[in-house]
Design goal:
The complex is a heterodimer. By secondary structure, chain A is an alpha+beta fold. Chain A has two domains: 74 residues, Ubiquitin-like (UB roll), CATH 3.10.20; 67 residues, [2Fe-2S]-binding domain (DNA polymerase, domain 1). Chain A is built from five helices and five strands, in the order ββαβββαααα. A five-stranded mixed β-sheet of chain A has the order 2-1-5-3-4, covered by helices on one side. Chain B is of the alpha+beta class. Chain B has three domains: 46 residues; 117 residues, Uridine Diphospho-n-acetylenolpyruvylglucosamine Reductase, domain 3 (2-Layer Sandwich); 107 residues, Enolase-like, domain 1 (2-Layer Sandwich), CATH 3.30.390. A five-stranded antiparallel β-sheet of chain B has the order 4-5-10-6-7. In chain B, helix 9 packs antiparallel against helix 10. The longest helix of chain B has 21 residues. Classes of the chains: A alpha+beta, B alpha+beta. Chains A and B meet through strand 4 and helix 3 of A and helix 2 and helix 5 of B.
Chain lengths: 152, 287
């Protein structure tokens, strides 16, 4: 069926099967492979995107459900060569190891700071309960978010 | 395994009711956080998926004349931000924190959680303890209201007819001196499904229990009240012996199963322990 919504600021319309998950549409149809599929059961948070500015897991939404809405993926954050401040903070503090969870972590962290500009360490850790990282032990991820929050 | 189905996104309740009245198998979906995960394990038993996310009429939280009405489409993220105070906030606040994580709370709705009717559904025990009713509407049958215990009918089975839409959940706002207790026991704090969950409201008058509502999750085919245990407390003071008797009775009334999260025997012990803990806390508070 026909669907039209905006992805990273570009209006697009396409023909998708109703059963297509948003994450599959982003990756397979649009080639936006920065949004990862980890668990496919809505637990790991590798597939986080923003839907009208709020962070959601894109494996728990059908592409057709996004009709008329604004989707932002990790590819939509940087301004040309200038990284989004949260991306820059993750680079600065080395908030990653293998990098698989990183896009979801960054999308989730940006939504946290939209809701709470100066979160405590506990608030950061609580917020990330739906984003799993199997490498870092979260230490540098939390530090990255704190660094970004302090610089705002 | 993801099967084929048609999809429709009604813009208002009457369009949604018409869609639900369509021939064939029809399934409403709100936040989709259960439906879309289940869809990957087994084909959805539906020919038409009716997306409820655009129904603004299901979104308000209303408080009027001592009655509170939650639209069925209220997300857990919004419930968590809500500040009704007293027992309502005391039960709903920690339940929302215990519910999945922020990313799921941004989509999942209270109506969806009740309709999914998992025995472990997080919203059920607090709403049972608040004596909530579910409002249902259909294109041809008008609307009806069911108390939550009559809404739950079996394992993931509710009294909702295929053509009906759950539009809201309604309950009386407890009085300011109402006491409460909530606890969710899971394997870990983050993103875990209940082993046992408990919510209670207790009204004390002159040192005696005027009314107690004790609700349990994940210890029966669906979330339940424990009327015998509540009855034991009625008109009695909260002391070691009444609390022990109510806790033992609640454990007997529960019907837990063994599964990969816990054994039935463990769950039953935890019911006794948590009812005891809750009533002790209720007795202490306000002293």
């Amino acid at each position: 069926m026909k669907v039209s919504f905006s992805v990273n600021g570009a209006e697009l319309s396409g023909d998708v099967e109703p059963r297509t998950l948003l994450v599959d549409f982003l990756r397979n149809d649009l080639g936006l492979t920065g949004t990862h599929v980890g668990c496919d059961t809505s637990q790991c948070g590798a597939c986080v995107v923003h839907l009208d500015g709020r962070s959601i897991k894109s494996c728990t939404l059908l592409a057709v459900q996004a009709e008329g809405m604004q989707v932002t993926t990790i590819e939509g954050l940087a301004d040309g060569d200038a990284l989004h401040p949260m991306q820059a903070a993750f680079r600065e503090e080395h908030g990653l190891q293998c990098g698989f969870c990183t896009p979801g972590m960054i999308m989730s962290a940006i939504d946290l700071l939209q809701n709470n500009a100066a979160p405590t360490e506990k608030e950061i850790r609580d917020w990330l309960e739906g984003n799993l990282c199997r490498c870092t032990g979260y230490q540098n991820i939390v530090k990255s978010i704190q660094t970004n929050a302090k610089s705002q | 395994m993801i099967n084929d189905f048609e999809f429709t996104q009604p813009r208002d309740v009457s369009e949604a009711l018409e869609a639900l009245a369509e021939k064939g198998r029809v399934m409403p979906v709100a936040g989709g956080t259960n439906v879309l995960v289940n869809m990957k394990r087994a084909p959805l038993e539906t020919d038409l998926l009716v997306d409820l996310t655009r129904l603004e009429a299901l979104e308000p939280i209303l408080s009027d004349n001592g009655r509170i009405r939650l639209g069925a489409g209220v997300t857990f993220a919004r419930l968590l931000e809500w500040r009704p105070g007293g027992a309502v906030e005391g039960l709903m606040g920690p339940m929302c924190v215990a519910f999945a994580g922020p990313l799921i709370r941004n989509l999942a709705t209270v109506g969806g959680n009740l309709c999914d009717a998992s025995a472990a559904a997080d919203a059920s025990p607090p709403l049972l303890a608040l004596d909530a009713c579910v409002e249902l509407e259909s294109a041809t049958g008008g609307s009806r209201t069911l108390p939550l215990p009559a809404f739950f009918q079996g394992v993931r089975k509710t009294a909702r007819r295929a053509t009906e839409l759950v539009t809201g959940i309604e309950f009386s706002k407890p009085e300011d001196d109402e006491r409460w207790f909530y606890y969710k026991l899971g394997k870990r704090k983050a993103d875990a499904i209940s082993i046992v969950s408990i919510a209670m409201t207790v009204k004390l008058a002159g040192g005696k229990v005027e009314r107690a509502r004790i609700a349990l999750g994940a210890v029966a085919p669906f979330a339940m009240r424990v009327p015998e245990a509540e009855g034991i407390l009625q008109g009695e003071p909260l002391n070691d012996s009444t609390i022990a008797a109510a806790a033992a009775t609640a454990a007997r009334e529960s019907r837990p199963i063994d599964d990969f999260r816990a054994t039935g025997a463990y769950r039953r012990q935890m019911v006794e322990a948590l009812v005891k803990r809750g009533l002790n806390e209720v007795a202490r508070r306000g002293k």
